[in-house]
C-alpha cells in the first residue's frame, strides 16, 4: 500500500500533474491546508490586486487632499499588489517548472509579505499620535517626515526579504516572530488608546459626535482585523521549533499564512469602504440639497 502511494505521488510530479505539496512528500497526508492556502492566494490575485490598484490610483489622484497616513497606505498597497501578482509565478513554478532560480523570487515575495505589518504599524502609530497627542502631531505633520520613515521601513523590508530569498525560510524565522510580536502589540496599544480617548471625550454626553462616532467604529473594525489576521501567528509562530516537520510545514505555517495573506484583500477593501461614492464617479455624487425657489 505504501509503495503504491509513493508510486502514484512520484508519477504526479511530472508535467502539469504536480500537486501543490510535491516539494514535501510528507505533506500528502494533509493536502487540505494547501488548498486553503492557494485558495487565498488566488483570491488575492483576483480581488486583492485590483483593489490595491484602486487604492494606489485614489491616493495619487487626491494626494493634496489625502490624510497623513496615505503615504504608509500607498507603500502597503504596493507590497500587497506585488505579492498578489506573484501568485501566478509561484503556482506555475510549484506545479510545473520547479526552477530553482524562480524560487529565489518567490521567497523574496514571501519575505515582503512577512514584514508588511511594519507599514500597518506606521499607520496605527500615525493615527495614535494624531488622536492622543495632537500637539505633537502638528509638529510632525509634514509629508516629508513620513516619506523618510517609509524609506527606513523599506530598507528593513528589503534586508529581510533578500535574506529569506538567499538563505532560506528558516534563516529569518526568529526575526519574523519578533516582527509579528512587536507589530501586533504596538498596533493593539495604539488602537486601544484611540478607543479610550474617543470614549473619554464623550463621557457624560448622551450622543457621540457623528465624526467621532464614525472614527470610533472604524478603529473597532481595524482592531478586529488586526486581531483576526495577526493573533494566530503571534500565538503559534514563536513555538515553531517545538513542532514536528509535518505539523509545522504542512499545517500550522499554511493556516497562519493563509489568515495573514487575507489582509491583501481586506485592507484595501477597508480603505475603499471609507471613500465617498463620488470619488469613483461624479454620477454617484449625492444631489446637493439646495433650497428650491418657487415663483408665483
From TrEMBL:
Record's keyword terms, sorted: G-protein coupled receptor, Glycoprotein, Membrane, Receptor, Transducer, Transmembrane, Transmembrane helix
An annotated Gene Ontology molecular function: G protein-coupled receptor activity
Residue stretches in coiled coil: none
Membrane disposition: Multi-pass membrane protein
Broad class of the protein's primary localization: membrane
GO cellular component term, pick one: plasma membrane
TM annotation in the entry: 34-60, 72-97, 117-138, 145-163, 175-198, 219-240
A GO BP entry: phospholipase C-activating G protein-coupled receptor signaling pathway
Gene3D superfamilies tied to this protein: Rhodopsin 7-helix transmembrane proteins
Subcellular location(s) of the protein: Membrane
Domain G-protein coupled receptors family 1 profile: 51-271
A Pfam family: 7tm_1
InterPro entries: GPCR_Rhodpsn, GPCR_Rhodpsn_7TM
Family matches, as PANTHER family: G-PROTEIN COUPLED RECEPTOR (PTHR24232), G-PROTEIN COUPLED RECEPTOR 35-LIKE-RELATED (PTHR24232:SF108)
Name of protein: G-protein coupled receptor 4-like
Amino acid at each position: 500500500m505504501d509503495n503504491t502511494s509513493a508510486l502514484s505521488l512520484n508519477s504526479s510530479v511530472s508535467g502539469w500533474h504536480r500537486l501543490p505539496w510535491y516539494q514535501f512528500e510528507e505533506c500528502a497526508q494533509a493536502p487540505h491546508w494547501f488548498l486553503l492556502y492557494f485558495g487565498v492566494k488566488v483570491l488575492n490575485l483576483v480581488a486583492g490586486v485590483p483593489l490595491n490598484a484602486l487604492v494606489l490610483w485614489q491616493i495619487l489622484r487626491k494626494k493634496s487632499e489625502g490624510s497623513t497616513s496615505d503615504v504608509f497606505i500607498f507603500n502597503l498597497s504596493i507590497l500587497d499588489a506585488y505579492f498578489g501578482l506573484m501568485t501566478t509565478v509561484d503556482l506555475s513554478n510549484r506545479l510545473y517548472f520547479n526552477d530553482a532560480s524562480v524560487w529565489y523570487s518567490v521567497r523574496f515575495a514571501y519575505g515582503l509579505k512577512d514584514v508588511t505589518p511594519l507599514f500597518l504599524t506606521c499607520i496605527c502609530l500615525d493615527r495614535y499620535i494624531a488622536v492622543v497627542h495632537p500637539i505633537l502631531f502638528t509638529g510632525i505633520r509634514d509629508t516629508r517626515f513620513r516619506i523618510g520613515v517609509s524609506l527606513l521601513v523599506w530598507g528593513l523590508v528589503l534586508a529581510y526579504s533578500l535574506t529569506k530569498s538567499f538563505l532560506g525560510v528558516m534563516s529569518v524565522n526568529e526575526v519574523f516572530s519578533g516582527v509579528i510580536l512587536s507589530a501586533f502589540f504596538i498596533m493593539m496599544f495604539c488602537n486601544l488608546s484611540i478607543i479610550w480617548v474617543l470614549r473619554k471625550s464623550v463621557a457624560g454626553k448622551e450622543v457621540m459626535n457623528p465624526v467621532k462616532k464614525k472614527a470610533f467604529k472604524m478603529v473597532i473594525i481595524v482592531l478586529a482585523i488586526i486581531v483576526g489576521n495577526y493573533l494566530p501567528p503571534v500565538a503559534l509562530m514563536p513555538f515553531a521549533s517545538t513542532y514536528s516537520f509535518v505539523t509545522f510545514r504542512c499545517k500550522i505555517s499554511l493556516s497562519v499564512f493563509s489568515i495573514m495573506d487575507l489582509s491583501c484583500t481586506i485592507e484595501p477593501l477597508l480603505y475603499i469602504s471609507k471613500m465617498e461614492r463620488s470619488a469613483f464617479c461624479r454620477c454617484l455624487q449625492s444631489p446637493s440639497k439646495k433650497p428650491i425657489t418657487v415663483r408665483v
